[in-house]
Structures are given as C-alpha cells and as structure tokens.
Amino acid sequence: MNNKVNNISSDSFILLLEKGESIAYETLFRLYYDKLVHISIGYLGCYDDAEEIVQNLFLKLWEDKKKLKPISNINSYLYTMVKYACLDFIKHEKIKMNFVNSSLEKKLSIQHQFIKDEAASLLLENELENKILEGIDLLPEKCRKVFLKSRFEGLKHHEIAKLLDVSKRTVDNHISNALKHMRLHLKEFLTLFL
C-alpha cells in the first residue's frame, strides 16, 4: 500500500489527505519531516524550536485538511508554510525580547529613582539632624538643659523641676522658649513638610 501512495498523483494524494487517510499523513510525515526541520534550523538556529515548528505544521495540516483542495504543489506548499511559521516565530521572539528589555529598563529606572530618592532623603535627614543640634547649641544653658531632659531623656516637667531644683512653671517657660527658638531655627525644614 505504501508504494501505491508514493506513486499516486499529487491531486490524488491531496484527496487522501483531505479524507483524513492516516497512511497519507504518515507518508507525508516520513517524506518531509527531516527536510522541513532542516529548513527550520536554517531560520531559527535551534533544533528544538525547529522541531516544534514542524510538528505544529503537521498538526495544522491535520486540523485544516479541508483547506488543502486548492494546493497544486504539496512540496512548495510545505516549504512555504515552514518559512512563514519560522518568520512568525522570529517576529514573536523579537516582540518578547523587546517587552523583556522594556520591562528591565523600567525596573532599572525605578530602582535608580528609588536609590536617588533614598540618597536625597538621607542627605535631608542628615541636614535636619545637624540643624537641630545647631539649634539646641544656640539655646541658653539652663533652657538647653531643660529642653534636652524633656525631649531627649523623656522626663516629665515636674521631674525636671525636682531634678534641677526649679519650679514647674520655670520648666514650662524654658520648654516654651526652646520650642519657639527651634521653630524659627528650623523654619526652612518645616516648610518642606507643610
């Protein structure tokens, strides 16, 4: 039977393919598979991809058997199908690579911006810390002691009064004066956050 299929005309062979005759598909596969894979490798440079293209081509032939009628030259038809399938594959791979590259560029840009923002924040934080210390140093000595005990040691006003042997009202006044001074001294930073 196999010799009979090989010797029949192209029209008869296509008719057998259209009818879904498995012997016709097997013959076509054996005759063209290796040649088509070789052509695919020429386009793609990768055996696995080339093999996948050709396998999909034969699957498509099976699924679209009713569309085979107008084919006059099966050889030319298969080579053309493989060529366009390879070109589509290459085009799709380029689109994927462009997407990956674009995504990578965006990710790097975001990371760069984050690092830049992080560096700017750190710089601003260091400047603010220096400005606070400078402002504290400019306070009168007693006022500075009261302010440090309140804000850095976390003591309550009555505790500071007892520790420094002054009235609570004096502590309140020192804290009030220190806060006014610090607001004025830090006004350029305060406007950044308002």
Describe the 3D structure.
With 194 residues, the protein is mainly α. The protein has nine helices and no strands. α4 packs across α5. The radius of gyration is 41 Å and the shape is rod-shaped.
Give structural attributes.
single chain; 194 residues; mainly alpha; disordered N terminus
Can I get a quick summary?
The chain is mostly helical and 194 residues long. It has 9 helices and no strands.
Number of strands: 0
Provide the low-confidence segments as ranges: 1-8
- Average the pLDDT over all residues and give the rounded result: 83
How large is the count of helical segments?
Answer: 9
Secondary structure class reads mainly alpha
Largest sheet, in brief, is:
none
Helix content: over 70%
The succession of helices and strands, N to C, reads HHHHHHHHH
Task: Give the CA-based shape.
Answer: rod-shaped
What Rg do the Cα atoms give?
A: 41 Å
Separation of termini? 90 Å
Share in β-strands: under 5%
List the SSEs and their pairings.
Layout: H1 2-7, H2 10-18, H3 22-44, H4 47-63, H5 74-137, H6 141-151, H7 157-164, H8 168-185, H9 187-190
